[in-house]
Amino acid sequence: MDSRAQYRRMCKGITLAIPYAANIGGTATVTGTGPNLVLINQIDSLYGSEANVSFGTWMMVAFPCMIICLFICWLWLQFLFLDSFKFWKKTIAQTDEQKERARSVIRNQYSDLGPMSFAEKAVLVHFVILIALWLTRDPKFVNGWSVIFEEGFVTDSTTVIAVCMVLFCFPSQPLGFMCRPVKHDEPKTREEKREHKISKTIPTLLSWRAVEQKMAWGVIFLLGGGAAMAEACKASGLSSWLGEALAVFGNLSPGIMALLISFIVAAFTEITSNTATATIFLPIFAELAVGLGVNPLYIMIPSTLACSYAFMLPVATPPNAIAFSHGTLTVMDMASTGLMLNILCVLVANFTINTFGVWIFDVKTFPAWAADDMTTIAPTSAAINCSEYIKDLYNVGTTVM
């Protein structure tokens, strides 16, 4: 293979690595991607805080899954595009030259960034504080700082609002004596005085104008719409009807059922937005799981992770579309590479829920907080006749009305 063709293959591999890493890496935290936020919103609206899905507990389950999937993605891209396993085709001179060239590019890009400003350092400190508060609120193995307050009074959202309020007040420039701004060199020319005019007030790290212009308001409306749609499906009986239509899964073991549902979601999210897919399917899966006597988290968590495992088409996720827009890739490049990643990552997600999920969330046990959401409690056997249960539930609801 000539050097030009090898260069094109390497460009394709690196271009694919960026969106794939973005899709996989976002699954590790609640705030990393849209489907995770939809899941938390649905769980809070359906079951409340008793489901015990927080930033820390989610990370305990999803972070190991993310690491394994990233490693698999790295191996797969190395095998397909970079010939890293064909070590006999390399020469030491070529390898050293390429490494030095790559280091030079990275050093130049890093030097162009310049030193961190006071505002950047302040934002970084606030971000670290936010992560620490998230992780220590209720780590489960020890008492977190939330025990200071009444149960259910403090959530992950509380810490976000608190840090945001501080950002609206914290100065973006260092303060001197009597909280006055530190003065820099006085401007000499008229142009410098015009450009460097000293302001009487110091801007804060965050302003409402910046929030108004750069806040992703569409995500908020999408999450609110998802909660409203879930409540509408439940009140109208649509969730029960869909649960009856999916009663065929009642003859399967919970593990096989979760695996098949994850593959269905992974295929569906290739042609639709991953956040919209989670918004549509998660209320249905919650109803189905409770109807079958299965812990809802046992189905909802792997299906939520599967919403982010969209590697085959450019329209699947925004990172895929951005990478495809550069013109280096073709649809066949993404489809042929992403198919195997879809399969492997879904398998890893289901492996994780059967290992770490059992340890953190006890997903093999039907919880009381899920039973309280239903009028009649389903047996814990996965082989329950779901259609008869849903019909009885619907008749009870009709009688009450």
UniProtKB/TrEMBL annotation:
Entry keywords, A to Z: Membrane, Transmembrane, Transmembrane helix
Membrane topology: Multi-pass membrane protein
Pfam families: Na_sulph_symp
GO molecular function annotations of the record: C4-dicarboxylate transmembrane transporter activity; dicarboxylic acid transmembrane transporter activity
Chain segments annotated as transmembrane: 55-77, 118-135, 147-168, 215-233, 245-268, 280-299, 339-361
GO cellular component: plasma membrane
Compartmental location: Membrane
InterPro entries noted in UniProt: SLC13A/DASS
Domain of life (superkingdom): Eukaryota
Main location class: membrane
Record family assignment: Belongs to the SLC13A/DASS transporter (TC 2.A.47) family. NADC subfamily.
Protein's recorded name: Putative solute carrier family 13 member 5
